[in-house]
Amino acid sequence: MFPLAGSSPPNQPDELTRALADGLRACGLTSRSVQTDGAWPDLTRLAIDLTGAEATLATPVPVANEQIGAGPRLAAFELDAAPLHFEAIPVHLRVRLASAATEFARAAEGALALALASAASGEIDLHIFHADLEAGLHTLVAGLAKKHGADVKSTRLEITAPTARSLGLQITATAKAFIVTTTVKVRGRVELDDQLNARCTGLVAEGEGMLGSMVESALRPRLAQFEGRTFALGAFVAGGLRLRDVSVRVDDALRLHATLEGA
């Protein structure tokens, strides 16, 4: 679902373009561009480019409370982010849907949103470069440890893909305070379901010695924010679309590819 600015649903392509751009901006997501082609209500293309946008765990995501009417039909829907920064980590995203139907909805607080109701087919590609993810995690761990007087010298990330729908993560951080050096390890798993919801589980931190325990304590509240949390990677897989195939691959990047089809 995409937030829309305004008090009433748009009914022209240029109104939809402005409502989407302003709605995303109000949620803290500044789009590079929003483009619509074709005549209302049968648009040939809706394209949203979120390259350069910044999101965090606190970024609001609209949830439909009430469907209020049919939206435009889209011969093609495109969403790109090359990249979008999530918690300062660059995330590359590409979504393509064909023959999509949309609905206007209203969230619990009364805000308008555009929901993708169905589509004939689609693809989702997402990747995060290993070096970017490792650097982002280093910044996160170092910032938390510094508050407790420890200096994180290095962070190493290891990723495995035991199945096509799961990931194993291990972060090894080397920290120093005064003349004491310690190692802290963070482990966890990410599981994907049929709606492309990614759920983080089993997040634990283990530190060596007194300094390691101190860094572990600094990390624990942050890990608790992610434990059991679901990230809706398939927020665009609405009614009328089902997951046909998904694959997770790890090389120089963490890569996810999903193929969708109409029900």
Number of helical stretches of at least 4 residues: 3
Spell the H/E element sequence.
EHEEEEEEEHEEEEHEEE
Could you report the average pLDDT, rounded to the nearest whole number? 89
Report the strand count.
Answer: 15
* Cα-atom radius of gyration: 21 Å
The domain count comes to 2
Shape: elongated
| End-to-end distance | 19 Å
The helix-and-strand class reads alpha+beta
Q: In which range does the helix fraction lie? A: 10-25%
Largest sheet report? 10 strands, mixed
Range of strand content: over 45%
Low-confidence stretches: none
Can you tell me about this structure?
- It is a single chain.
- With 263 residues, the protein is an alpha+beta fold.
- It has two domains: 2-119, no CATH class; 130-230, no CATH class.
- It is 19% helix and 57% strand.
- The chain has three helices and 15 strands.
- It has helices at residues 13-26, 130-146, 209-226; strands spanning 2-4, 33-39, 42-49, 54-55, 64-86, 89-107, 112-118, 121-129, 151-163, 166-177, 180-192, 197-207, 230-232, 241-250, 253-262.
- The strands form two sheets. Strands 1, 2, 3, 4, 5, 6, 7, 8, 14 and 15 form a ten-stranded mixed β-sheet that branches. A five-stranded antiparallel β-sheet has the order 9-10-11-12-13.
- β10 (166-177) and β11 form a beta hairpin.
- The longest helix is centred in the C-terminal third of the chain and has 18 residues, at 209-226.
- The chain is elongated and about 70 Å long.
- The mean pLDDT is 89.
What are the defining features of this structure?
263 residues; alpha+beta; ten-stranded mixed β-sheet; five-stranded antiparallel β-sheet; 3 helices; 15 strands
